[in-house]
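Ligand-bound model needed. calcium ion.
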Amino acid sequence: MTLRVLVVEDDREIRSLMQSALTVEGFEVQTAVSVSEARALLQHAPPDVMLLDLGLPDGDGIELVQEVRKHHSLPILVVSARHQEAQKIQLLDAGADDYLTKPFNVAELLARIRVALRHRGTTLDAAIKVHELEDLRVDLILHQVHCRGEALHLTPTEFKLLARLVRSAGRVVTHRQLLSDVWGPEFTEHTHYLRLYMAQLRAKIESDPAEPRHLLTETGIGYRLAAM
Ligand code: CA
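Prediction:
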């Protein structure tokens, strides 16, 4: 089955770079240069994945994400410039799956698309139950964490936080999403909880907590559990 990607990007150079890279990978590529064009294509023939540039000439990406989320579960990857941090977080909180910062490399783009597609596939049937990468193994059913061959003891909150990241393995999860899912919706401003618990988790899991290989920081945005 050929998967269809919708690239929403007004910069001609970036658009054609994405188009050729994705075509080589075997995707069928549709392009739109504005929110209104994207809207029309989405109504006519919804794609399997959408890549959404943040700076578009005719409107707001967040409205488009909210509209898409009403009708479709397709993965949305936000592609943004470095300075558009605040908007990026809003879009992730509104239901976008992940983001890439320009300039990105094509391998990274393709890896993110694969992760996003895999997650959409798994959320429909069985969710992730076991996460394994290098020296780390997390079993969400048995509530067990093994690291470098040894069983780790985590507190209930540490486990909850790790489990939340496992369910989105490979994708960024915003501070707000983590605080809301682990501590509750009334705790979304308590970012110091996250910093504290992430430090504890890293001390237990990472062989060098100062150079984490599993629990990655996405500066100003959130955290990402490294995945294959
Ligand atoms: Ca743009």
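The CA atoms of residues 77 and 144 lie 32 Å apart.
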